[in-house]
Amino acid sequence: MNIEIERKFLVKNKDFKNLSYKEEVFKQGYLNSDKTRNVRIRVTNDKAFLTIKGASNASGTTRFEWEKEINRQEAEQLLLLCEPIIIEKKRYYIKNDDLIFEVDEFYADNQGLILAEIELNSEHQKFKKPDWLGKEVTGNKEYYNSYLSKNPFKNW
């Protein structure tokens, strides 16, 4: 079983952009965004993925995740079957010692929202917090992409 351990933060400013070593544009939709599991279709610059995620643990840091690369054309067709709001965002990758922050700048219905995530090897792993990192929102369901696909940031 694949387990994802991550922490999520708001971002205070756009200083992270100068530190990015890679960028990707994402379009993703949810075939199912139930609170106990979600099924996502994601299309990036040149690839596509089907992802299934389980419910988070009590702290919100850990959950089951299964992902498989799929045909990009088929993924584009599956996006048409997804729940109404498609998430559009640009992801920036920033090295932080031996870890990587993934910072998502959202567009369309979630314009103005910027979130940073860091995947860890254990729930209590320590890491350096950059100056641009803001309030922690790990476990706050409002900041899950599946939530944003039903309740976009523009409506908050």
From TrEMBL:
This is CYTH domain-containing protein. Residues 2-150 form the CYTH domain. CDD domains: CYTH-like_CthTTM-like_1. InterPro entries: CYTH-like_dom_sf, CYTH_domain, NeuTTM/CthTTM-like. It holds the Pfam family CYTH.
